[in-house]
């Protein structure tokens, strides 16, 4: 029995030393030390031994079991370390190689233009107001002196959700909502940036969704000359000190009198060119004195208060500032286009 144990020990040691993988070692562990292994079989036969032989065989069996287990554990650890070293060698990184450049994002040109315009007007005492893009018929039309039969209410121009709900066609509803919050007490001096929606066919100069910034000033004694003074300051700060302005008579249902603001052409310095259609001027926004009906629906007494309002398309200002010829460039997310504004 002792000879058999010694043979098993020598045999197990030889096979463990010859093993080249962790899997082989696990198989050897089961084969020699498992419940059905030869060492266990020897222990099961100890009942047939004499009282003198039994302790010696039991002691040697335990020594053999421990020796084989220790050798397997040692060889298993060695093989795992070797495998780890080989894997690290295969997956090593050459830190001297140049890294892959990571592109940096930048502000969208429309965002930059909006922030620039906001900064200019905030510097003149305006505050920024916002409102919902899904509006009611009352705030989008009726409160702005647009009766039921006005062409701007036509289904071809407006995205209606229900008979009373729609996607706002301008940011003017924010003006009425702000006046209501003031409960008929001035002054009000705000600009309202945001998205607006109209059922236009998309082309180089039109989009069904675009950005607007509208302004409103309501107080006692406000005159058209105040509006002109605001425009002179704004245009020179946005377009440059050498730019001139002019106001042309126009018509809007929510202002009376109404005017279009023109800015002298930067390309020809007012002499006339293709950009300004040989007029020397470029139209940039609409404006006028707030209609008494609009003041009344906003909760202000038109006998006591007066005001002016204006609205501008952000895309148009961006196109004029950066020489962009197609409004669709702003919405295609073409990185070749957007990367030009990394320093904007």
UniProtKB/TrEMBL annotation:
<keyword id="KW-0479">Metal-binding</keyword>
<feature type="coiled-coil region">
    <location>
        <begin position="61"/>
        <end position="91"/>
    </location>
</feature>
<comment type="subunit">
    <text>Tetramer of two alpha and two beta subunits.</text>
</comment>
<dbReference type="InterPro" id="IPR006195">
    <property type="entry name" value="aa-tRNA-synth_II"/>
</dbReference>
<keyword id="KW-0648">Protein biosynthesis</keyword>
<dbReference type="InterPro" id="IPR022911">
    <property type="entry name" value="Phe_tRNA_ligase_alpha1_bac"/>
</dbReference>
<dbReference type="Pfam" id="PF01409">
    <property type="entry name" value="tRNA-synt_2d"/>
</dbReference>
<keyword id="KW-0547">Nucleotide-binding</keyword>
<dbReference type="InterPro" id="IPR004529">
    <property type="entry name" value="Phe-tRNA-synth_IIc_asu"/>
</dbReference>
<comment type="similarity">
    <text>Belongs to the class-II aminoacyl-tRNA synthetase family. Phe-tRNA synthetase alpha subunit type 1 subfamily.</text>
</comment>
<dbReference type="InterPro" id="IPR010978">
    <property type="entry name" value="tRNA-bd_arm"/>
</dbReference>
<feature type="domain" description="Aminoacyl-transfer RNA synthetases class-II family profile">
    <location>
        <begin position="111"/>
        <end position="320"/>
    </location>
</feature>
<dbReference type="InterPro" id="IPR004188">
    <property type="entry name" value="Phe-tRNA_ligase_II_N"/>
</dbReference>
<keyword id="KW-0460">Magnesium</keyword>
<dbReference type="InterPro" id="IPR045864">
    <property type="entry name" value="aa-tRNA-synth_II/BPL/LPL"/>
</dbReference>
<keyword id="KW-0030">Aminoacyl-tRNA synthetase</keyword>
<dbReference type="InterPro" id="IPR002319">
    <property type="entry name" value="Phenylalanyl-tRNA_Synthase"/>
</dbReference>
<keyword id="KW-0067">ATP-binding</keyword>
<dbReference type="GO" id="GO:0004826">
    <property type="term" value="F:phenylalanine-tRNA ligase activity"/>
</dbReference>
<protein>
    <recommendedName>
        <fullName>Phenylalanine--tRNA ligase alpha subunit</fullName>
        <ecNumber>6.1.1.20</ecNumber>
    </recommendedName>
</protein>
<dbReference type="Pfam" id="PF02912">
    <property type="entry name" value="Phe_tRNA-synt_N"/>
</dbReference>
<keyword id="KW-0963">Cytoplasm</keyword>
<feature type="binding site">
    <location>
        <position position="256"/>
    </location>
    <ligand>
        <name>Mg(2+)</name>
    </ligand>
</feature>
<keyword id="KW-0436">Ligase</keyword>
<keyword id="KW-0175">Coiled coil</keyword>
């Amino acid at each position: 029995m002792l000879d058999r144990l010694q043979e098993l020990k020598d045999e197990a040691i030889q096979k463990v030393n010859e093993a080249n993988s962790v899997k082989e070692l696990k198989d050897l562990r089961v084969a020699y030390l498992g419940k059905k292994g030869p060492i266990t079989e020897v222990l099961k036969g100890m009942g047939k031994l004499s009282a003198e032989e039994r302790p010696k065989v039991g002691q040697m069996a335990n020594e053999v079991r421990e020796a084989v287990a220790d050798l397997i554990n040692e060889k298993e650890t060695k093989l795992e370390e070797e495998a780890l070293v080989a894997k690290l060698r295969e997956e090593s990184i050459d830190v001297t190689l140049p890294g892959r450049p990571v592109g940096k994002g930048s502000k969208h040109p429309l965002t930059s233009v909006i922030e620039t315009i906001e900064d200019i007007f905030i510097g003149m005492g305006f505050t920024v107001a916002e409102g919902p893009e899904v509006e009611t018929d009352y705030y989008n039309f009726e409160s702005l002196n647009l009766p039921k039969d006005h062409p701007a209410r036509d289904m071809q121009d407006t995205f209606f959700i229900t008979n009373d709900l729609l996607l706002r066609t301008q940011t003017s509803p924010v003006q009425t909502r702000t006046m209501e919050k003031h409960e008929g007490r001035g002054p009000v001096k705000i600009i309202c940036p945001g998205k607006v929606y109209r059922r236009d066919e998309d082309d180089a100069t039109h989009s069904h969704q675009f950005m607007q910034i509208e302004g409103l000033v309501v107080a006692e004694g406000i005159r058209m000359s105040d509006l002109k003074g605001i425009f002179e300051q704004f245009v020179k700060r946005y377009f440059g000190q050498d730019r001139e302005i002019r106001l042309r008579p126009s018509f809007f249902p929510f202002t009376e009198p109404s005017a279009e603001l023109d800015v002298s052409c930067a390309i020809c310095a007012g002499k006339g060119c293709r950009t300004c259609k040989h007029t020397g001027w470029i139209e940039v926004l609409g404006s006028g004195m707030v209609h008494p009906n609009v003041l009344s629906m906003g909760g202000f007494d038109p006998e006591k208060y007066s005001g002016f309002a204006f609205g501008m398309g952000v895309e148009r200002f961006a196109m004029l500032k950066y020489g962009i010829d197609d409004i669709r460039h702003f919405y295609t997310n073409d990185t070749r286009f957007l990367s030009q504004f990394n320093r904007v």
